[in-house]
């Protein structure tokens, strides 16, 4: 599951018994050698879809971690790119390792639930971070994203179809979420990370309530399931208004 450069079982246990912020500070130096990092195949597929929709001017990577998604933004944004995360350790690694070609990159430490930006971005992306937000936090989170986007701006992120109930993956994720709930019932501070809490129907509803026009685009690189549904979708939530640049994403 982990490469030899990844964290030891003891290091993972210490992280899991910490707060989310402290846990990621500890994990940061080895994070890119774990399965938690967004796979390059997902980053490439999202980048291809956004290139067809762009170009954009300013982009924000929400909960950027060690900066895996910054390269996606650098490939579609012309003026500047910003990564924001609340873990100082993850941002330190990002500053050291990420040197993308393209527009200048800045790094900001902040909580996604209280973003310190004016509406200056044309595109916000996020990769693999939504399990850290409880369902009741989605309205506030999406309101924050809306607040930093210009009229016509877009919020885009990949969403993997949940595994079928009969599959090993389903039971693995269910077991992980149950362990985390027991851990959080018995131990403080809480470590919020639930793989099954971010559901497509909830996402669509809360984005619409936040004022977004929501579209779904199948990412063809990952194929379709037996029932014909996409294995991976790109969720594109667009604000009404005239975008600052030509281009839009079609489902």
TrEMBL record:
PANTHER family associated with the record: 2-METHOXY-6-POLYPRENYL-1,4-BENZOQUINOL METHYLASE, MITOCHONDRIAL, METHYLTRANSFERASE
Q: Which domain of life is it from?
A: Bacteria
- InterPro entries in UniProt: Methyltransf_25 (IPR041698), SAM-dependent_MTases_sf (IPR029063)
Ranges where the Methyltransferase domain occurs: 60-153
Provide this UniProt record's keywords sorted from A to Z: Methyltransferase, Transferase
- The protein's name: Class I SAM-dependent methyltransferase
What Pfam families has UniProt attached to this entry?
Methyltransf_25
One annotated GO biological process: methylation
- Offer an example of a GO molecular function term for this protein: methyltransferase activity
């Amino acid at each position: 599951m982990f490469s030899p450069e990844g964290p030891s079982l003891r290091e993972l246990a210490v992280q899991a018994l910490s707060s989310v912020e402290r846990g990621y500070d500890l994990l940061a130096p080895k994070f890119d050698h774990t399965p938690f990092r967004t796979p390059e195949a997902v980053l490439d597929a999202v980048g291809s879809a956004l290139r067809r929709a762009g170009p954009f001017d300013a982009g924000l990577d929400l909960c950027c971690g060690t900066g895996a998604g910054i390269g996606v933004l650098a490939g579609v944004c012309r003026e500047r790119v910003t990564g924001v995360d609340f873990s100082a350790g993850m941002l330190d690694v990002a500053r050291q390792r990420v040197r993308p070609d393209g527009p200048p990159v800045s790094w900001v430490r902040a909580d996604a639930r209280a973003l310190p930006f004016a509406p200056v971005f044309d595109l916000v992306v996020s990769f693999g971070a939504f399990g850290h937000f409880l369902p009741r936090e989605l309205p506030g989170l999406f309101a924050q994203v809306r607040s930093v986007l210009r009229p016509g701006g877009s919020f885009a992120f990949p969403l993997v179809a949940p595994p079928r109930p009969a599959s090993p993956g389903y039971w693995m994720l269910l077991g992980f979420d149950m362990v985390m709930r027991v851990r959080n019932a018995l131990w403080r501070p809480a470590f919020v990370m639930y793989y099954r809490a971010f559901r497509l129907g909830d996402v669509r509803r809360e984005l619409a309530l936040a004022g977004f026009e929501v579209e779904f685009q199948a990412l063809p690189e990952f194929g379709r399931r037996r029932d014909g549904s996409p294995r991976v979708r790109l969720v594109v939530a667009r604000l009404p208004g005239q975008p600052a640049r030509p281009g839009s994403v079609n489902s």
